[in-house]
């Protein structure tokens, strides 16, 4: 889901201040010429995202300007009203905005989803190619995303050179689906069984929540073997989608299918291995002042003291009740991952550092330097589902230039988003 819609309005009337409204609601009232002002809101229906400031200074008196709007505000081909503030809508103008045109190089390009049998591993995977250049690879084994490249073809996820693709070992890297438990708190194996089971293509997926035309739907159901340790019938659906902007969107739905009337409880995580240039140059923002369980200290509860999490040694934590947006900034690569999450309040942060790296057979001794796990999770308050009930969780990751940091947007990012 894009955070902003952009429109270009031509022939702005030369008025000192103005407001814009759409068919549905008033959008915002830009303050006169001062870009540092927060927009005032002319009415409260609906309160769109008040946190969004007018990032692009509104160049009044110029024949054309670009404005940004929060989600749900008008998109292309809708009417806008332009009026001069304070004197009603005297210079009322209605503009029908042209749909945003695709760049010329996109002509004739379409998104595709291809099923491929990997020769080296013998495993089936799906290769998603979004028309604007981003791509992803998703294995039926583990329902695991192992590759995600942005619109420029740069890999965003870490996959160990020593990763094993042989069941029952989970693939070391990408995004592991941890269900029905994270860690070793529970009756099943570490991080649950979903990451090392063979999933199927979901032949009757629910309607997608995204506007993406590039996605794959997978499903995992109970096996007789798993019923011995976790005696429940369930459907775990996973949709992996690429947005036109190159975002990677994972949506999971879990349904209790027990016929015996029994509820079940589970925890869940998208154990996400990001590729980073140099771990000592990376910071994670959005977790300041939060409590976390420190797995390195018998899971004791601590409170984050820094304004960002930085890495100088092994880190193995579960941050609790984190905000919906977490930002991982890779200074050296000048790249930032913005992670947005729904129904997944907690965040896993893990880097094994040197000693543990050496002890893992499927991980290179030096690879801890170029990876970091930051993933949305639901751990502290497990989910309980009664038969017939369904839970849905979501993680969206957007790669953006590094000048972006939490809560702020910069013109470079705006320009890049406008080009898409
Ligand atoms: O080796 P695994 O099972 O994939 O787990 C990797 C790491 O995953 C983290 O989430 C755990 O907190 C760590 O303790 C663990 O080492």
Automatic annotation (TrEMBL):
It catalyses: alpha-D-glucose 6-phosphate = beta-D-glucose 6-phosphate. Pfam families: Aldose_epim. One of its GO terms (cellular component) is cytoplasm. It comes from the Eukaryota. Keywords: Isomerase. GO terms for molecular function: carbohydrate binding; glucose-6-phosphate 1-epimerase activity. One of its GO terms (biological process) is carbohydrate metabolic process. This is glucose-6-phosphate 1-epimerase. It comes from Triticum aestivum.
């Amino acid at each position: 889901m894009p955070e902003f819609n952009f429109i270009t309005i031509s022939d702005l009337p030369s008025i000192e201040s103005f407001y814009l409204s759409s068919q549905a609601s008033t959008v915002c009232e830009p303050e006169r010429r001062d870009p540092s002002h927060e927009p005032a809101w002319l009415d409260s229906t609906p309160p769109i995202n008040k946190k969004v400031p007018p990032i692009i200074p509104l160049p009044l008196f110029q024949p054309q300007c670009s404005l940004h709007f929060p989600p749900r505000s008008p998109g292309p081909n809708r009417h806008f009203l332009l009026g001069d503030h304070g004197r009603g809508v005297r210079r009322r103008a209605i503009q029908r905005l042209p749909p945003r045109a695709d760049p010329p190089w996109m002509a004739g390009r379409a998104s595709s989803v291809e099923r491929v049998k990997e020769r080296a591993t013998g495993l089936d995977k799906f290769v998603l190619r979004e028309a604007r250049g981003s791509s992803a690879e998703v294995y039926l084994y583990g329902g695991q995303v192992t590759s995600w490249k942005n619109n420029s073809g740069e890999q965003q996820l870490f996959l160990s050179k020593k990763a094993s693709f042989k069941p029952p070992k989970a693939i070391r890297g990408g995004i592991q689906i941890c269900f029905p438990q994270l860690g070793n708190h529970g009756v099943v194996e570490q991080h649950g069984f979903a990451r090392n089971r063979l999933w199927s293509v979901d032949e009757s997926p629910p309607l997608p929540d995204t506007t993406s035309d590039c996605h794959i739907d997978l499903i995992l159901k109970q096996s007789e073997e798993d019923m011995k340790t976790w005696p429940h019938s369930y459907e775990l659906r996973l949709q992996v989608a690429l947005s036109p902007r190159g975002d990677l969107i994972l949506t999971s739905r879990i349904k209790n299918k027990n016929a015996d009337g029994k509820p079940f409880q589970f925890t869940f995580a998208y154990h996400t291995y990001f590729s980073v240039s140099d771990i000592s140059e990376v910071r994670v923002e959005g977790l300041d002042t939060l409590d976390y369980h420190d797995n390195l200290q018998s899971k004791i509860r601590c409170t984050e003291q820094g304004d960002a999490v930085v890495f100088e040694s092994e880190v193995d934590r579960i941050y609790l009740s984190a905000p919906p947006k977490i930002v991982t900034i890779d200074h050296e690569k000048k790249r930032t991952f913005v992670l947005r999450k729904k129904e997944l309040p907690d965040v896993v942060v893990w880097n094994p550092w040197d000693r543990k790296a050496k002890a893992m057979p499927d991980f290179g001794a030096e690879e801890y330097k170029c990876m970091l796990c930051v993933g949305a999770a639901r751990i502290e308050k497990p989910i309980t589902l009664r038969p017939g009930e369904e839970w849905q969780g979501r993680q969206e990751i957007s790669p953006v230039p590094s000048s972006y940091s939490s809560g702020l947007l910069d013109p470079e990012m705006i320009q890049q988003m406008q080009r898409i």
